[in-house]
């Protein structure tokens, strides 16, 4: 009903898009995981690179950047999910305030 009633309406002068959300079957459900905010990211960082940087923690399950829908560019922050709280806390303790270019530069497909 929301899709039909809100389609092409304007919010703050801009048309909004309402559609069904979908999830890829390749991604793990992280709704019950511990999510860590990661900010001040370079525009070149991808989801895969973000995940690679945190994959040294055994329970790291996903890395997801936030994107600006108008420009298609990264918003410079994202979230990393962990299956257990201890790994999430270790990542926060180990990496807060650190520039970890090594994992980005050494990343390969």
UniProtKB/TrEMBL annotation:
Keyword RNA-binding belongs to the record: yes
A Pfam family annotated for this UniProt entry: RRM_1
GO molecular function: mRNA binding
Domain of life, per lineage: Eukaryota
Position of the signal peptide: none
GO biological process, one term: mRNA processing
Keyword terms: mRNA processing, RNA-binding
Residue spans crossing the bilayer: none
Family annotation (InterPro entries): Nucleotide-bd_a/b_plait_sf, RBD_domain_sf, RBM42_RBP45_47-like, RRM_dom
Span of domain RRM: 34-98
PANTHER family with a match to the protein in the record: OLIGOURIDYLATE-BINDING PROTEIN 1B, TRNA SELENOCYSTEINE 1-ASSOCIATED PROTEIN 1-RELATED-RELATED
Protein name, per record: RRM domain-containing protein
Organism: Saponaria officinalis
Biological classification of the source: Eukaryota, Viridiplantae, Streptophyta, Embryophyta, Tracheophyta
């Amino acid at each position: 009903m929301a899709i039909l009633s809100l389609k092409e309406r304007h919010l703050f002068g801009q048309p909004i898009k309402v559609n069904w959300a979908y999830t890829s079957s390749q991604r793990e459900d992280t709704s019950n995981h511990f999510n860590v905010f990661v900010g001040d990211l370079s525009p070149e960082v991808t989801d895969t690179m973000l995940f690679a940087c945190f994959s040294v923690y055994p329970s790291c399950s996903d890395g997801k950047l936030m994107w600006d829908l108008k420009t298609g560019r990264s918003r410079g922050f994202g979230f990393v999910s962990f299956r257990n709280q201890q790994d999430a806390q270790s990542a926060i303790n180990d990496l807060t305030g650190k520039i970890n270019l090594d994992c980005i530069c050494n990343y390969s497909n």
